[in-house]
Write a structure and sequence with these properties.
30% helix, 26% strand, 10 helices, 324 residues, 2 domains, Rossmann fold, six-stranded parallel beta sheet
Length: 324
């Protein structure tokens, strides 16, 4: 018997339905993974609401999971039956007790990392890795801004950036989240509603920032631009408050010849060798203790709707996993 959470039409959390589905057999190049934990991410909300398009409906959403390889298809060499594996890439389908996925999208987990941590770290942790190490390579002595610093990606980025020797400014919505961000490496915290550019100007002595990492989107985009020094990098990688409206690129010139990018994990891990390198870098900082995972919420997979409600209401901190 196999169950998954499926949506038959786009909409609110109530569209997430627990259903019995056939146990798939792996095709050539695929592996069947029995999940031990599934990651919850805001991108799941985008697929549920229709902001991001699904190939067809009904569909099982979810991008991230960890478990054990139960069967492999013809030609698979990347993993073997019994391997402990994790992933964080498309196609969607993680909200299931078991699923098939292309074997070249799986990475083997170190023995020191448990399934819950792996399910919580893959999408968020690999996102933090490419943002900090490739999109803009953070260097010791720099001051950076991380929006949603108490969220899953935010807490990882605060720790990792601190490990790299950076000074971290984080934004959060409550004082409780501010304390959480400070405990994980944020040197300065700015609350939602404060004048962000003014706060950054004060913190940096007017120098402003080389980079802003923004997962919030519409509400923070323009204030973020005003936090950047000339030639600074605006890295917009999420839409928690809604998509960023169309922008006149002349604004980038007027504010100091700024760089703007909208990166995705899929692009940075499209080649298997890049996927493995990003994952191994993440596993390295976690096993060394430089970055600690914060699985602060656990829900039964069948209660995914409640998990989505809490995520959208900003009731969650750190990472959340769904347990089959």
């Amino acid at each position: 018997m196999n169950h998954s959470i499926r949506i038959h039409e786009h909409g609110g959390p109530e569209q997430l339905v627990w259903e019995e589905v056939p146990l798939p057999a792996p095709k050539p190049g695929e592996a069947l993974v029995r999940h031990k934990a599934v990651g919850l991410n805001f991108i799941d909300v985008y697929f549920r609401t229709g902001l991001y398009k699904l190939p067809s409906l009904p569909a099982t959403i979810g991008m991230e999971g960890a478990g054990i390889v139960e069967a492999i298809g013809e030609g698979v060499t990347e993993v073997a039956v019994g391997d402990r594996v994790a992933y964080a890439s498309g196609p969607v389908g993680a909200y299931a007790e078991a699923r098939t996925i292309k074997a070249d999208r799986l990475v083997k987990m170190p023995d020191a990392i448990g399934f819950e941590d792996a399910a919580a770290m893959m999408l968020q942790g690999m996102t933090a890795q490419y943002l900090l190490r490739t999109t803009y390579r953070v260097k010791a002595g720099e001051t950076i801004l991380v929006h949603a610093a108490a969220g899953g990606v935010g807490l990882i980025m605060c720790q990792w950036a601190k490990h790299l020797g950076a000074t971290v400014i984080g934004t959060v919505s409550t004082e409780a989240k501010a304390e959480l961000a400070r405990a994980h490496g944020a040197d300065h915290v700015v609350l939602t509603g404060e004048d962000l550019p003014a706060a950054v100007k004060k913190i940096t002595g007017g120098a402003m920032l080389p980079v802003v990492y923004d997962s919030v989107g519409r509400d923070t985009f323009m204030p973020s631009l005003d936090c950047l020094a000339p030639l600074g990098y605006m890295v917009s990688y999420g839409n928690a408050s809604g998509p960023v409206p169309p922008i006149d690129i002349g604004v980038l010139a007027a504010k100091g010849s700024l760089y703007l990018t909208r990166p995705t994990l899929a692009s940075y891990t499209a080649k298997r060798e890049d996927l493995v390198a990003v994952a191994e870098d993440l596993f390295d900082v976690v096993t060394k203790g430089a970055v600690k995972m914060n699985v602060n919420q656990r829900y039964p997979l069948k209660e995914a709707a409640q998990a989505h409600r809490d995520l959208e209401a900003r009731k969650t901190t750190g990472s959340t996993v769904l347990l089959p």
